Automatic annotation (TrEMBL):
This is Rhomboid family intramembrane serine protease. It comes from Gillisia lutea. The keyword Protease applies. It is a multi-pass membrane protein. It is found in: Membrane. The lineage of its organism: Bacteria, Pseudomonadati, Bacteroidota, Flavobacteriia, Flavobacteriales. The keyword Transferase does not apply.
Length: 248
């Protein structure tokens, strides 16, 4: 039995690596650990949330995505956050960390600026950020894979659009709206950074012109070589045997 070597195609911008699922899992696990620590040791970290237009409330820009009011709040944010961040790391791996960190800061600051006088906590702003970015960037790209991702995001989470309006006083619609706006802003900012698989052989990173079968038909001056010598080939003799057709 012969052995076969399997390797990741480095030319493909869409590659599944351990980080694609590993980083989102780490983020989600950290959120659950914070909630477990509060329950286990009787702490309440709500005071670390975003408090609009107060100096102490600025710390919520960093801490609020990791703080949730109860298990229901935490559970509702966990799965969308995991799914959307995994899509981000798979389809946009080169800019994924920029989207996460800068997005978290800008979403938090915008919430701090426009939010009503309340404590804003939870990762829902990050969810709206990711959903907005994945949707709009896929549409702007006009690339079939990323556009398909946009339609999947709409199909799965299109109903979230309802909650960017003040329909429930217990929900931070300001955080949702902030995430949506920042995601749209990032889709414009990174509009030119569209990941596409190489379409032609000469677009690949490992392409060597000297080894290209087509380019071997031209000399250094660009003249066409009609009969290309093949140094590696050997003379082959073909023997044909003709048989007369016999009628039954």
């Amino acid at each position: 039995m012969s052995k076969q070597n399997f390797s990741i195609n480095q030319d493909s911008p869409f590659q599944f690596t351990l980080g694609v699922i590993g980083y989102p899992l780490m983020f989600v696990i950290l959120i659950w650990l914070v909630f477990w620590f509060e329950i286990r040791f009787g702490y309440d970290f709500n005071y670390l949330g975003v408090r609009p237009r107060t100096f102490s409330g600025l710390r919520g820009v960093l801490f609020s995505p990791f703080i949730h009011s109860d298990i229901k709040h935490l559970f509702h944010n966990t799965i969308p956050l995991l799914v959307l961040s995994t899509a981000l790391f798979y389809f946009y791996r080169k800019i994924s960390w920029q989207i996460l960190f800068l997005g978290m800061l800008l979403t938090g600051l915008l919430t701090w600026s426009i939010g009503r006088e309340a404590t804003h906590i939870g990762a829902s702003g990050m969810i709206y950020l990711l959903a907005s970015f994945l949707f709009f960037k896929g549409i702007f790209s006009k690339y079939y894979r990323l556009m398909a991702l946009s339609f999947i995001v709409v199909f799965m989470y299109g109903g979230m659009l309802w909650f960017i309006a003040p329909v429930d006083p217990q929900i931070s619609w300001e955080g949702h709206l902030s995430g949506l706006v920042v995601g749209l802003l990032f889709a414009f900012m990174y509009k030119e950074k569209i990941e596409k698989s190489p379409k032609y052989e000469w677009q690949r990173q490992d392409y060597e012109e000297e080894q290209d079968a087509f380019m071997k038909h031209f000399d250094a001056e660009g003249n066409f070589i009609e009969n290309l010598p093949d140094e590696d080939s050997e003379d082959v003799t073909y023997n044909y045997i003709y048989k007369e057709r016999t009628e039954d």
